[in-house]
């Protein structure tokens, strides 16, 4: 290659006695000429000060000897390329001073052709302190400067190391480096299949193509085969010599930082034990899958749709997991779950069935509760839902046999997206959960689909939830009072308060329909409070107005109310505010929740008893409460469930009823027979010495005002009826 020809000038005004050599001598820089063998043939400028050697000592020496040993190899490589015709040469290097220290200089070189070969004219300028390049090397920041065509003009040792080139400088074209560049996986890649990384352009080239991307992170698989995550920051620059544009990039290795971020991300989105998606991430991933399904089926008419147009959610749960936990211990149970999850990951890959149906199935798999798993499925064949549900069940059986050596079954609720209903993923999960509960309630070990009628029930429940929420926030929950009567005198001893909800059309919604909705929506304590507060207020308004003393009014408390940490405080402060004697207030606790109470509300109940409040077990006999359970709690009233009432003295129910009432007396409790509808039922419970009765026969639940009127009229209720019945 031909060295560049430069048409330099040296002009001196006429009459001046300044000689070119004079200028050289006084130049603040070091000027050195090397012969083709790189031996010094001329020195000028401040050469003696740079090296601490006289000019005579310098002449004839090898230039290389004057360079810091660590820089020699690099400089030689550069010199060689420069000699071969590479562009201007401007390295930064350390020169050795005779005093033993080094001087950092920036060098500009020129080739000077001569008859015996190429001579070199080098001008070195002192750098104050350390050179940028060396500092960069020391802190591991790579520098890469290249022209618009990707030709590298400058790089430092750190840049080479980051590309897996040990000890050499990067040179040549970026395109020709032997590295592979992988795009960084997006943080939100939640697919079960794992992140995809495509080979792509080197960030320097991307930056050259599109200056908009100034900061990039890429994984570089270097020439040494090691992959490093590197952040690249680019700037456009202009070459000092001729003003041509180029870029300079700073490189920093961020592998560790990146790994840490990845790990944090993984932990925030994935379940620790199983590595499956957590509930919130699962829903997010499923949501975008659902969106894609809807878009695809919107773009193509169903008939010719080649994409997957069906979407469904499977709610999968292991039957009797609690007993596995108890029998095998948490450690074993956890190992089982982890093993199961690994097995489940294969569900997505085994798509034979779907392939034969001529389509593709994609799934997301999440762990959404202790033993609850969910699948979001996009497919184009309805049979896929059953295939995957069966796959889950088989996987549970297989894993349980292998790890726990027992037969374990599982149930799955399936809910398919219906474009006419337009459910969200949360709603589909809700529906699938509801059918799952149904499956569990009807013998477990099965797959159930959410069908139209079930969906209609769910929709009605959702509607009622809305009505209830609106009523609660507007303070529009009402209550009725049903008298509780002493059947031997007919006198009203008190009442039970029953919550009432009005539908949008003003009609009353049966409690059986909406109390359940309140419970599953987590609103039952709000409902209880909406009854408790006005009831105590009503009692307060009756103080001093009842000739026979205050009636005892009972309220129903759900388990969430009973678990309120401020339960006793709440009730006592209300009673105090309205100056109501605690003996006029009764709390009904459903028999079903007695075990819960023993753990969480025993303290409050004891305080109630101390102050004279009445405590009743509601629906006694319906929940298999044991004698001990009742005896150990500070209860004093048992409300015998309506299902035990009978009109026949020789029936099995009669025996149970008699036992229940005998038990009440043995426990020293008062008894209330609930739901008495007929004269015969009333007579039987009276024969068995029941203390009080409540039922349609005596009085239906009525508005509070009607109850107050009835109470203050001092009318008796039962005996007349008995007399009538008898007469
Ligand atoms: P419960 O506590 O067992 O209330 C008695 C239920 O039996 C009431 O139904 C009442 O109207 C009904 N009943 C009374 N006498 C008769 C009768 O002679 N025959 C028949 N067949 N039924 C009779 P209601 O008002 O529909 O309430 C149903 C359930 O809703 C209540 O059962 C209670 O568990 C719950 N509930 C009502 N109000 C509240 C409340 O404020 N909070 C809570 N947590 N639950 C409530
Ligand atoms: Ca009750
Ligand atoms: Ca009851």
Automatic annotation (TrEMBL):
Domain named PAS: residues: 16-86
Domain EAL: 461-715
UniProt source species: freshwater metagenome
Domain GGDEF: 309-452
InterPro entries: Biofilm_reg_signaling, EAL_dom, EAL_sf, GGDEF_dom, Nucleotide_cyclase, PAS, PAS-like_dom_sf, PAS_4
PROSITE patterns to which the protein is assigned, alphabetical: EAL, GGDEF, PAS
Pfam family, one: PAS_4
CDD domains listed in its UniProt record: EAL, GGDEF, PAS
Stated name of the protein: Unannotated protein
